Amino acid sequence: MRIRLHSVIVALLLIAGCSSSDNQPETSGTAAATPDEWASMRAIDACAILDESALAALGKTGDRKYAGANSHTCVTTITAPDGTATVARAYVGERVQEGAKKIDLGGVDGFQDTSCAVTVKIAGDSGISISVEGYEFEKQCGQAEQIARAVHTQLKSPPQNPYASPFHNKDPCQPTDQFAAQIGTLKSIRRPTIINCEMTGTQGTLLVSQEIESMTTHVHGEPVTVAGKEAMRHQEPDQKDRCMIMVLLKEAPEDAWFTMHYEVASPSDPCGKASKAANASTTAS
Predict the structure, then answer these.
(1) What is the pLDDT of residue 218?
(2) Measured distance CA(42)–CA(261) in Å, rounded
(3) What is the C-alpha to C-alpha distance for residues 52 and 47, in angstroms, rounded to an integer?
(4) I need a surface site. Which of 2, 118, 140, 230 has the fewest CB within 10 A?
């Protein structure tokens, strides 16, 4: 079977615009108490940012829904009076690109990058971005700025909902101590995006990811049970040093599930270690 172990993580890294400086590992001496740079953003409800009333001046908004695999991203369609439809996206956890242009959205500063996304900083250089789907960059830049101005109140004081999904307010690097026990002495820990955790130890690596998985396209692995929940184990026949456990947490819209992925790369028993990491996290949640 052919399975997707790294594709979502790689895609998310590209979306988040991680720079080389962002990719530096954190020191292992404080790994168990590593500060979570995304902590102030984990409870923000991306769909509530695309407020129907705030966007009413631009047109009628359609259903708001999570975008792809990330519950911190929401999209909606805004239909103008002339029938023109614009797909707007709010993404919590964006990093402002170097050289982004500063713009005043009305009491809050935004930063527009070369992709036309407008980002308002929440912590450091990270925050919430507003963007528009399409390929006409000149047009999109104006649309994204217009939408960001319309929801500037929501960007200035982001709406909180720690229960919006099983992932809101949850740090994928926890429980750190139990995770580290599976890969030896912890050497580094990183959170490249708001939904990922990467740990490196003396006996291997552990990648944890909070994802919305489409059951219509997912290649089903070997059925297993983790802390009483349905799960799947994926291991390629030619990759005995790598194994991924996917735990199904809760049904999501459009024939999808909120899932946790635990992938271990280790020369010894990667499936056993991934299963133990999954059990520790699922039991603790």
Answers:
(1) 82
(2) 18
(3) 10
(4) 2
* C-alpha span between 275 and 261 (Å, rounded): 10
Looking at per-residue pLDDT, the higher value among 26 and 147 belongs to: 147
Sheet holding 204-214, edge to edge: 186-190, 196-201, 204-214, 256-265, 242-252, 229-234, 222-226
Question: What Rg, from alpha-carbon coordinates, does the chain have?
Answer: 20
Question: Is the confidence at residue 138, as pLDDT, over 80?
Answer: no
174, 32 contact by CB (below 8 A): no
Return the bridge partners of 242, or none. 265
The arithmetic mean of pLDDT across residues 4-18, rounded, is 38
**What is residue 194's three-state secondary structure?**
coil
Nearest by Cα to 231 from 253, 206, 258, 207: 258
Terminal Cα-to-Cα distance of the chain (whole angstroms): 31
Could you give the count of Cα atoms lying within 13 Å of 86 in the half-sphere of its Cβ? 23
Q: What pTM value is reported for the model?
A: 0.85
> Which residue is listed with tokens 């005043």?
104
Query: To the nearest 10°, the Cα dihedral for 148, 154, 160, 163?
Result: -50
pLDDT tens for 225-253 read: 999 999 999 999 999 999 999 999 999 98
Q: Are 145 and 112 in contact (CB under 8 A)?
A: yes
Distance CA 112, CA 145 (A): 8
